[in-house]
Amino acid sequence: MAAPIALHLEFGGGAELLFDGVKNHHVTLPSQSEPWDMRQLLAWIRGNMLKERPELFVQGESVRPGILVLINDADWELMGELEYQLQDQDNIIFISTLHGG
Amino acid sequence: MEEDVLSLRKQLMEKDREIAFLKGKIDQLGKDSESLRQLQDKITLHAPLKPKASLTNADIMRYSRQLLLPELGVQGQLNLSKTSVLVVGCGGLGCPLAQYLAAAGIGRLGLLDYDDVELNNLHRQILHTEQGLGQPKALSAAQALSRLNSAVECIPYHLQLSPENALELIQQYDIVADCSDNVPTRYLVNDACVLTGRPLVSASALRMEGQLTVYNYRGGPCYRCLYPKPPPPETVTNCSDGGVLGVVPGIMGCLQALEVLKIASGQGSSIEQQLVMFDGQETRFRSIRLRPKQASCAVCGETPTVTELQNYESFCGSAATDKCRRLNLLPKEQRITVLEYKSIQDSSAPHLLLDVRPSVEVDICHLSHSLNIPLASLENKKSGDIDQLREKISALKTQMKTDLEVPVFVVCKLGNDSQKAVQMLEKMSGCELERISVKDICGGLMAWAQKIDPSFPQY
């Protein structure tokens, strides 16, 4: 059994508007037999935090195009993307790309 | 006698000063017309900049405070003077960027913008002035920059960057700064920079946030490495919809200028594989380590599929401007014009006018008899707001004393959100609400201001 893990989730660049405009969220994922990975975290966010219009955040099992995911201040591509195994106290940022000027 | 001589001498000195000032002004105007090329509405070939062998005394005086920096020095200053930079977009980012580049003594600035100066630009696009309203932004910016530093050659392009002209234009410049305001242009500029091998210093801003990256530089990733697929158009917010605090693109444009100057002077940029994020609300900067150049990238990868420029508007599903889109979700019968609504209002027929804009916009202006329930509250079925709507409709129903459906007219700023609201209200009619007949007002309050009430504010 993997113990529950506490995460700091941050949303920015407008992605926070899908979460009542709140940028910082401290969440605890319940204990489960396997360690939590990013794929499961996205499904958990979709099921527990997203109220309306989930397609503006997730698409298939990943995030929609135009959202950059950062794990502990690094591009998630460097960390294994969906396969990354979450650690207690990880900082996960979802940032919507800006285009205005 | 002696006093007369003194007084005459004093007058003579004043006149001398005046003459010197006027001579200076004439020289300045001559230089202005030299440094400021004519407004270009098509791409022409400009001769490459000639490297300077040394700095003049005037150069040394002018740039002395930056020449003292060992990071720049004389060689760095000479490098700046032989570098040309293309500024794509003379708006909130492009203005401060171009201003610092000109002040620092960059050799040549290409200033590209298809748009004209509007009053709602001036809070952030700080090269433009009230006198320049209606002028092409490229020209307005070039004139301001020539006043600042007449040694900088400014070439204003009053045109839209397109797949047809981008390569020809970009290959004439050493560095490209993306200061644009829409997704198709960002992909176009990226691909053109990859195909011509130019470094791309890219910034963006919205609301209170900004982002900055240098792409296609020293083996680092390009824009497509990070964003292989464009975002769905409905998820993209522009400054005219989402708003922006002027100083935020100002900060990002200044950071962009810093990276351009480091590349141009020979120091090199330090953020080729980094994303710098600025949160103006928390006054916080953050640097993120990005992925390296992707072997699978469609344009800069090992087997590129993009080998020439494409149609970026169809690739992104949106237009290459930041102007608001016009949705057409409803059939004609479900929409009325502002003129039709005016006659309904004048007839005092019972009806509900529902304003679905966010409350921050309602605070700017609204029609006095409207009920405000933001679109988001309808979407989320926010209970207090839905109760209020239900009560209002029931009261009208009682007042009408008939079995007819209560007429509801929905209004927003431009007539896009109002159509979405009509679709939601239709589903609620007869179950969560009394039966209503619901229509939207075409063109919204901005059409009202233009066609019915010129004293109504536009924003």
Provide keyphrases for this structure.
heterodimer; A: 101 residues; mainly beta; Ubiquitin-like (UB roll); five-stranded mixed beta sheet; two-stranded antiparallel sheet; 11% helix; B: 459 residues; alpha/beta; Rossmann fold; Oxidized Rhodanese, domain 1; 2 domains; eight-stranded mixed beta sheet; five-stranded parallel beta sheet; 13 strands; 41% helix
Describe the 3D structure.
Chain A: There is a cross-link at residue 101 (Glycyl lysine isopeptide (Gly-Lys) (interchain with K-? in acceptor proteins)). Chain A: Pathway: tRNA modification; 5-methoxycarbonylmethyl-2-thiouridine-tRNA biosynthesis. The complex is a heterodimer of chains A (101) and B (459). Chain A has a domain at 32-82: Beta-grasp domain (Ubiquitin-like (UB roll), Roll), CATH 3.10.20.30. In chain A, 11% of the residues lie in helices and 31% in strands. Chain A has one helix spanning 38-48, and strands at 5-12, 24-29, 58-59, 62-63, 67-71, 74-75, 91-96. The termini of chain A are far apart. Chain B has 17 helices and 13 strands. In chain B, α4 runs parallel beside α5 (137-148) and α4 (94-104) runs parallel beside α10 (247-265). Chain B starts with a helix and ends in an 8-residue tail after the last helix. The A-B interface holds A 12-14, 51-53, 55-56, 64-68, 70, 73-75, 77-78, 95-101 and B 89, 91-94, 178-183, 186, 203-207, 209-211, 226-232, 234-239, 242, 244, 249, 275, 277, 279, 286-291, 322, 379-380.
Q: What's the CATH topology label of the largest domain in chain B? A: Rossmann fold
Helix content of chain B: 40-55%
Backbone shape of chain A: globular
The strands making up the biggest β-sheet of chain A line up spatially as 2-1-7-5-6
Low-confidence stretches of chain A: none
How would you write the strand order of the largest sheet of chain B?
3-2-1-4-5-6-7-8
Task: Compute the number of strand runs of chain B.
Answer: 13
**CATH architecture grouping of the largest domain in chain B:** 3-Layer(aba) Sandwich
Using the CA coordinates, give the radius of gyration of chain B: 28 Å
Please count the beta strands of chain A (DSSP E, at least 2 residues each). 7
Most residues in contact: chain pair? A-B, 26 and 48 residues
Beta-strand content of chain A? 25-35%
Let me know the average pLDDT of chain A.
Answer: 93
Strand fraction of chain B equals 5-15%
Structural class of chain B: alpha/beta
The value of Rg of chain A in angstroms is: 13 Å
The main pleated sheet of chain B reads as: 8 strands, mixed
